[in-house]
Amino acid sequence: MIEIALQPPATLIAIEVWGDAASVSQRLGAPLPPPCRAVVAGDRRVLWLEPNTWLVRSPRTEMDETLALLAEALGEDGAASDVSGAFTRLRVEGDGWRDLLMIAGVFDAESPGFGLGCVAGTVIHHIAVRLDVLSETAVDAYVAPSYAEGLLGHWRRSAARLGAQSPAE
To answer: What residue ranges do the domains of the chain occupy?
Structure first.
């Protein structure tokens, strides 16, 4: 069975570091992840987005605290921007999530190297998607809000074709 669902809104802060990242890592309590990786830092998840840029996800109730912490840690060596409205997060859970992501996608989700803590940017169903592997049976997908319903519908139809209909249907 594959479950596909919109996730509750969260605080998403994009940080760009053009100087020393050590103070950010120290304040987060975890090093910033290398390319194509994600790390957990307390109740925050940090995803690599592109060179010198990361996405920090924290609970919605901690938006001001997270933004202040990151801005202070960055100082003159970077910038922190609230991008919470720029992404919608979908979660795909179940043993067949890898098969599902391959339908109308241009990404090899079956690769054994694409496991826990991996992050990848790709296109699925003509939609730009940032994937974050949470476990052997779950992945989060970050998409522009205007495309979330389209991708959700595509995945639900595809899950039905695979015989793994989401109970959310």
So the answer is: 9-85, 87-161
Report the alpha-carbon distance of residue 169 to residue 164 in Å, rounded: 11
CATH number of the domain located at residue range(s) 9-85 in this protein: 3.30.70.1520
DSSP for residue 160: H
Segment 66-80 shows an average pLDDT of: 94
Sequence-ordered list of residues with C-beta below 8 angstroms from that of 18, at least 6 positions apart, any chain = 52, 77, 78
Three-class SS of residue 70? helix
Calpha distance 105→126 (Å, rounded): 8
Give the strand order in the sheet containing 44-50: 38-41, 44-50, 53-58, 11-17, 78-82
Helix (H, G, I), strand (E, B) or coil at 93: strand
Look at residue 165 in the predicted model and tell me its pLDDT.
66
Average pLDDT, the chain: 93
Q: What is the tens place of the pLDDT at every residue in 117-161?
A: 999 999 999 999 999 999 999 999 999 999 999 999 999 999 999
For domain 87-161, give the CATH number. 3.30.70.1400
Query: DSSP 3-state assignment of 90?
Result: strand
